[in-house]
Amino acid sequence: MENCIFCKIVAGEIPSSKVYEDDEVLAFLDISQTTKGHTLLIPKKHVRNVLDMDQATAETTFARLPKIARALQKATGAQGMNIVNNNEEIAGQTVFHAHIHLIPRYESGDGFSINYTTHEPDFEALGQLAEQISKEVAQ
User: Fold this and answer.
1) Domain spans of the chain?
2) Which candidate in 97, 99, 101, 119 is catalytic?
3) Hey, what's the torsion of the CAs at 89, 9, 68, 40, to 10 degrees?
4) Which class is domain 5-114?
5) pLDDT tens-digit map of 109-124
6) Would you call 99 a catalytic residue per the annotation?
7) What is the per-residue DSSP string for the chain?
8) pTM surpassing 0.85?
């Protein structure tokens, strides 16, 4: 895609700090470095996000994820890792080329957090929602 910063990185038009590359995917350090080692994994083929991925692109991209995550954890000495994917602006996507964030975690105050709300589950509503989603998956 013409104005896509990640496509320009893939094409070598913009420099990056590569950690992994093959014919299908590229992994490089995120310039924001939310935590030390924050890495992005992208398919080389331009696709907006996971919601627009075909099965083959998803398989090749996500198949590389565990290897890169293990190497990242070993290289940084991180205690754990958040693996995050934002789809569309409302979910925090700012670059509209599919990418997966690998964010090494060192301690609870290391610069990244996800806050979940907890409440008493409504199992009837959950069951109805699961049924609706299942119907869509089957199509």
Assistant:
1) 5-114
2) 99
3) -20
4) alpha beta
5) 888 887 778 888 889 9
6) yes
7) -TT-HHHHHHTTSS---EEEE-SSEEEEE-TT-SSTT-EEEEESS--SSGGG--HHHHHHHHHHHHHHHHHHHHHHT-SEEEEE---SGGGT--SSS--EEEEEE-STTSS-----------HHHHHHHHHHHHHHHH-
8) yes
Q: CA angle, 69 as apex, 102 and 113 as ends, to 5°?
A: 35
Distance between CA atoms of residues 105 and 115, nearest Å = 15
pLDDT digits (tens, 9 = 90+) for 75-132: 999 999 999 999 999 999 999 999 999 999 999 888 888 777 888 888 999 899 999 9
Cα-to-chain-centroid distance, residue 62: 9
- Letter for the amino acid at 125? A
Give the pair of three-digit tokens for residue 13. Answer: 């038009």
Instruction: Sort residue 12 into left (φ over 0), alpha (ψ -120 to 50) or beta.
Output: left
Tokens 């090749």 correspond to 60
Give me the sign of the Cα torsion angle 85, 89, 94, 95: positive
